[in-house]
Amino acid sequence: MSTAPPNTKPAPPAAPPPKRPPAWAMLRAYVQVAPASVALALIVLATSIATATLWSVATVGGGALVWAAGVPTTIHAGFWWTPLTALFVPEDPAQFVISFVLALTLLAVAERLLGTARLVLAFLVTGVVGITLGVLGQWAAANVGGLLARATVFDFTLDPTIGIVGALLAASAFASTLWRRRIRLLTFAVVVMFVLYNGDQNNAYRLIAALLGLALGVILRRGRLHRMRRSSHAQTRNLIAATVAITGIGPLAALLPPGGLGPLSFVSALFLHQEVDAAAVLAACRAVDTSNCRDELAAVSIQGVGPLLLALLPLVLLIVTAIGLRRGRHFAWLLGIVVNVAMIVLPFTALPGGDVNVQVDSLDALSPAIEVLLWLLAAFLVPFASIVLLLATRRQFQIRAPRDAVVRFTILVVVSFALLAVAYLIAGLATLGSFVPEASIGDVFMSTLRRFVPSGFESVPGRVIVPTSPLVLLLYQWVGPAFWTIFVIGTMRLYRATSTGRTLGDEVRFRELLHAGGGGTLGFMGTWPGNVYWFSEGGEAAVAYRVINGVAITLSDPVCRPERAEQTIIDFIGFCDANSWTPAFYSIHGSFLPVFESLGWQSISVGEETLIHPQTFDMQGKPWQKVRQAHTRGVKERISTLWTTWDELAPVQQSQIAALSEQWVSEKELPEMSFTLGGMAELKDPEVKLYLAYDPQGDLQAVTSWLPSWRDDRVVGYTIDFMRRADRSIPGIMEFVIASAAQRMRGEGVEVLSLSGAPLATKPPSADEDDAVEGEPAVMDRLLAFLAKTLEPAYGFASLFDFKSKFNPTYETLWMAYPDAVALPAIGNAIGRAYLPDANAKEYVALAKTLMR
Fold it and tell me: Fewest beta carbons within 10 Å, which of 282, 321, 398, 825?
């Protein structure tokens, strides 16, 4: 619920949420937003009733052909209007449902982006031109002998989805960076999948319409072409995983009517099992082993549910791969490479006889022969492209399971394979005379290997033998599916295994120490992924750190009671020495500097933390004018706030935050920073508070996250971390949010509100601080000043610092303590890696370009 800051002049209460409008009002509002989309849905309904395609399939002899596009109607019969009318009549009941639903969903989204007039234009232009170009190309290809064109030259098209796809791609030019990428990638992935695997002429027309929509969107936008922009790491993984998942589902498209026409439709041979009389075949082949027995027994061997499930294995493994890729798992990356290599071989081994014969007896046969060769070449396309994609993005999938988890997985796979294989082998050898045809010991061994591979791999050696013993037949059909089920379950468990170097118990202990007190205002950042924990011998103190290239970088203050600080630091330094690490205490507060000075260490300022004290926060006086104006404007605009946690949010609110954050990240060319800068994953912690701002329409204007700090199990401070605002938010929305948060915290007795540190930013020294400044290493001071000035165009540290200065805070310098100046290059490199752990060469080039502007 929205809240007003306690003990302050409250903002006017937000209007109570309106009652849910009646269904007719919602329907009317929907029609007003997407009138063309609703109109198309109604037209499709009317035409399907008029042509009877609502309950039956349009056939060659049906009256619907006067509206259908294709070579026989558009060209031979001279029905010039059919490229237009084909966009408004569905071909069969299934297509009616699909067209009706897509018109009310995807087309409505496109209409919201384009506007009604431009949507109608995009639908008609991409649909009519796409079908016309497709028909002309099909007619021309048939005249030169193309196999696919000849096979489909008498087909016709009634398909409203052609125009819908074209309009959607045109509308993508008007979408945000995030959604533009999603729409284009996923739409083209689905369309190309159907073209390659199914081969129906409608799919080809859709692809043409999609390409036309892409070009039309650029024209309608009347602007320069959009540059490719980077995704966040999570979004990149999601898109790659979705692409791989589509390639896994794609082979099933080869089974949809008409099927068998796409260049990759060979794979449908895996699922089209020949129906045979098993008893008759076994009886005939037992009596006389003829030359036809191998093919007939092969057909018998793949009858049943077990072999059918085994035939689905490559597709299942691709789906499992996609799940792991979404989580950034390295094992999923390896699995994807292996499975796609197998998919390159699979279409050829699935062919009868395992080979393809192409004969060219005359010039007329040259074109079909070339087309067959192109089909064979295209069979490499999707899996090969998937391999290239995975290799190109391998840096995104570096999350590895811990060694013990890998060992357990390996043992599980090896032992389960051995047990199942031995069980079948022993049962088969014990009933050797039950096989048809008569089998040798070697045949049973080869048959054992066959139990674990899909039936399409005809290159697996050995004769086809079929058992007649019930027990052996059960094992014959189910040991393969059982093993791969265990493999998939084991793989999913391996995905969940983490290699952070810390256990759940360690994190619980660390949080308990945080609750007791210690760690400072930035201490909660120690709970973030990437950090591991050192605990003192008695368990009453802890240090969060990470090791990068032999440098152990701590984060914030040691988590302990003040009186234990010195011993904690000394003990941790000894721990690092025992492991041959160079310790560097990063972002510590000045109260710890005497300890390091006594050890002979050096220190240097690495930023300024800005602090607000809610108990004295009042926004009175001229210094508060800018913040006061922003707060007043937010009140007048009826901005409401919500103090909550991620788990307490409704799914729609969570989606709003994710979309706002992803939009912000996707528009940045520069690599994401982490370490002391949290993201979406960090704000989902149950102990992290969120403060959200909404406009009166319920749209999210800004989101902030607040990290708690405790003393004796009581929250005494909050530190801001995650800050995002919507592109169309009111001016000063972040000032309003922070000021409102400070007022709220005053009522809760919070002692300190930290606006966190601004890396490399420094406040102008006052007269009484000159001596302290002189004590810093002069060379490093000048270097950090240079870096601050250089990196300002890219990351705006100084600008962020200036923004925080509006709140008239008190300042506390953040320091880095290090043992020896000789170690500074290694420490600097490690800190850079901590802030940019996944940056690649391309991102560094983008960073360099930004700095040179």
Answer: 825
3-state secondary structure of 685: coil
155-194 b/e (C-beta count within 10 Å ≥ 16 → b): bbbbbbbbbbbbbbbbbbbbbebbbbbbbbbebbbbbbbb
- Of 128, 199, 155, whose CA–CA distance to 58 is shortest? 155
Segment 666-696, tens digit of pLDDT? 666 555 666 777 888 889 999 999 999 999 9
| Long-range contacts formed by 334-343: CB under 8 A, 24+ apart | 335/491, 336/244, 336/386, 336/387, 336/390, 337/387, 337/390, 337/391, 339/314, 340/247, 340/383, 340/384, 340/386, 340/387, 340/390, 341/383, 341/387, 342/314, 343/247, 343/267, 343/314, 343/318, 343/382, 343/383
Residue 80: φ, ψ to 5°: -65, -20
Q: Give the CA-trace dihedral at 731, 737, 743, 748, to 10 degrees.
A: 180
- DSSP-derived 3-state class of residue 68: coil
* Residue 549 region by backbone torsions, left for phi larger than 0, else alpha for psi between -120 and 50, else beta: left
Q: What is the mean pLDDT of residues 740-753?
A: 92
Sheet holding 714-725, edge to edge: 532-535, 542-548, 551-555, 582-589, 810-818, 602-612, 752-759, 714-725, 700-711, 689-694, 640-644
CA dist 271 → 36, 195, 345, 456, 543 (Å): 41, 19, 16, 9, 58
Closest residue by Cα to residue 523 from 545, 547, 490, 501: 545
Q: How far apart are CA 178 and CA 124, in angstroms?
A: 27
The rounded distance, in Å, linking the Cα atoms of 828 and 819 is 13
- What is the value of pTM for the model shown? 0.62
